[in-house]
Amino acid sequence: MAKEGHKYIFVLGGVMSGVGKGVVTSSVGLLLQQKGYPVNLIKVDPYLNVDAGTMNPTEHGEVFVLRSGMETDQDMGNYERFLGRDLTKEDYMTSGMVYQSVIARERALEYGGKCVEAIPHVRDEILRRIDAAASYNGSRVSVIEIGGTIGDFQNALFIEAARVLKMKHPEDVLFVMVSYLPTPGTLGEMKTKPTQTAVRDLNSYGIQPDFIVARSKEPVDEKRKDKLAISCNVPHDHIISAPDIGSIYEAPLNFEKDKLGDALLNALKLPEKRRTSLAAWKKFALAAADTKVPEINVAIVGKYFDTGDFVLADAYLSVIEAIKFSAAKLGRRAKITWVNSKELEKGKSVAILSKYHGIIVPGGFGESGIEGKIKAIQFAREKKIPYFGLCYGMQLMVIEYARHVLGLKDANTTEIKKSAADPVVDVMLEQKKHLADNKYGGTMRLGAYPCYLKKGTMARAAYKKELVEERHRHRYEINPAYVKPLEEAGLVFSGTSPDGVLMEIAEISRSVHPFMLGTQFHPEFQARPLAPHPLFTEFLRAAIKRKRRK
After folding, report:
1. CATH for 290-426+480-494+503-549, among 3.10.20.30, 3.40.50.10240, 3.40.50.20, 3.40.50.880?
2. What residues contact 357, with CB distance under 8 A and at least 6 apart?
């Protein structure tokens, strides 16, 4: 049970989704944390999927993996990056999880033969999970983001749960609505009416917002703040302007200028424990936004870009942010270019990669675009362009090496070619039964596992320690039968599981290549604005050196 007097802040969306609820939630968490309060951030996703693990990245964006192994929405990544610490599986909730728990309890006769209904049983399960998260984390304030918008039918039970919590603890619950104020091009005037309508929709649930974060292209002027305050019954100083900014990392700084943190504490009747110091955060945000520093050109060769006529970067969100953090640390700005591996596969010249200072092949699954990625990896190796492979990017790096250095022309992964003469990458033994039983959701090797680093390697030099812990999301591994032949051909497995069975990091000696390294894990999940990941930093160092040589 959460302690008596625990505080709750619900962040809800009005008008439209995708306007920054996650950034607002992250920023609120950071501000309250800086003021001395332990915080936990909860993401509520209303879809019926039990988790985000089986969802298409081109439609839903990146699957973010927590330390526990929980596969979550990408917003959880932003939460961790802003707070600078790991979150727990208790901090994530989907409708699928909630219904699954209720049905399991019903099957176990835990409801005593009662008719199980959405209200009260599903609603109460939502409240139980919110309470459990607060208790598990030992927090003082829970900030809960409800995905989607107020008008979404599937959000009704979560909003009802929030209403009941407010009714039971009126002094301990706040509602923050994030709403968009459009400026139609033909009119050139910022409109408040959609937000007014959204507030009335929220009122129909029995909830009155305490704060409105007004998202807009330009800062919201006093006239419109007055209009929103009067029409929405929200105090004028609780109307927070949130105009478009260059970087999401500027958001907490803007909110602090408007004293949002102080206003939230006052509304919750909490004293300020310490004066907010965002000096380190400000230093990073300014460095990340500095357009005058030298530019480093990085190519990300992937396939999860296609969505209609658009290029979707969200599929690789954590990779992009990890690059930004390390670039800022090195006093550089990364210019990222998306290279579609499917186009390289179809015949587009791989020579286009010669203009980049570094190449990354991120994680992924399936056959599409794979040969294009292998072409890119071969080009990076032969032309000595710094290369960083993540998960699948490491597996394909090893396959490329086996084909073109070891001479195994049919080297492949059994994920793609089950009958490969040389299955250099093969399904892990414990995963074979899952695949045979068609159990795909939540069954991969997930979450944090230890990795031992060999002396005298790039990996060991980057981490400056012998044992590290990194997050994983994979079913396939380097086939142990090929480790010795690959090593004899010059490939170095610089990171392994402590028992030496699983190959975690592969690299080519710096005497042969300036930086060619792949990881079976996903280092991007642990990169933080104030603590960049050492492998991304070393990759960019090598890219900077290549730029100087060019």
Report:
1. 3.40.50.880
2. 296, 297, 298, 385, 386, 543, 544, 546, 547, 550
Domain boundary assignment for the chain: 7-283, 290-426+480-494+503-549
- Alpha carbon separation from 339 to 326, 514, 515 (Å, rounded): 21, 22, 20
Same fold, 7-283 and 290-426+480-494+503-549: yes
DSSP 510-537: TTT-S-EEEESS-GGGG-BTTB--HHHH
> Which positions are catalytic?
391, 522, 524
pLDDT of residue 314 exceeding 80: no
Structure tokens at 104: 């399991």
Identity of the residue numbered 94? T
pLDDT of residue 436: 77
Residues whose CB is less than 8 angstroms from the CB of residue 110 and which lie 6 or more positions away in sequence, other chains included = none
Q: Hey, is 148 helix, strand or coil?
A: coil
Q: Residue 323 burial by CB count (10 A; 0-12/13-18/19+): exposed, middle or buried?
A: buried
Cα–Cα distance, 531 to 538 (Å, whole number): 14
**What's the N-to-C CA distance of the chain in angstroms?**
61
As a whole number, mean pLDDT of residues 259-274 equals 91
Other Cβ atoms within 10 Å of 219 Cβ, number: 13
Report the distance separating Cα 75 and Cα 148, nearest Å.
12
User: How far is the C-alpha of 2 from the C-alpha of 138, rounded, in Å?
Assistant: 8
Is it true that domain 7-283 has CATH number 3.40.50.300? yes
